[in-house]
Design goal:
The protein is mostly helical. The chain is built from 6 helices and 2 strands; from the N terminus they run αααββααα.
Length: about 140
């Protein structure tokens, strides 16, 4: 049983959008989701600024859904979810892997700090309150 995400969540729509899908029928065919649920999720992704709705046919009105910069920035999150799922939820084997586009070799993605180039590990990196943290968050993440 998947423990984090619903069966066909918004992340699956974003995955398909990152693969070039833009039209309602493409998402529906790929995901096998009921039209009303797909409409609800697409609207939510548009409202969140991850997708942009564009009219491509006036009669009948038809829209395509285009990734915004914010939506394209979700790609590393999907890759991290894929890697986690392959490690913990795929006892039968990996159905999808990340591969080097040039060599075809399978990659093993990790999260890396852009400034130092160091892998983000629990030992080397901790959560701290940021400039916009409220007092409760500041207390929760205060240095020990």
């Amino acid at each position: 049983e998947p423990i984090l995400l619903n069966a066909v969540g918004k992340e699956m729509i974003l995955r398909d959008a990152l693969h070039g899908y833009t039209r309602f029928d493409e998402f529906q065919q790929s995901l096998g989701i009921a039209p009303n649920m797909l409409t609800k999720r697409l609207n939510s992704l548009v409202d969140s600024g991850l997708l942009e709705r564009r009219l491509y046919n006036e009669r009948p009105p038809r829209h395509e859904y285009i990734l915004t910069a914010k939506g394209r920035d979700f790609r590393p999150v999907l890759i991290a979810l894929l890697a986690w799922g392959n490690r913990h939820l795929a006892p039968e084997g990996k159905a999808l892997v990340l591969a080097d586009a040039r060599t075809g070799k399978t990659a093993d993605p990790i999260l890396v700090d852009r400034l130092s180039g160091k892998p983000v590990t629990e030992r080397d990196f901790v959560l701290r309150p940021g400039p916009a943290a409220n007092p409760r968050m500041r207390r929760r993440y205060a240095a020990h």
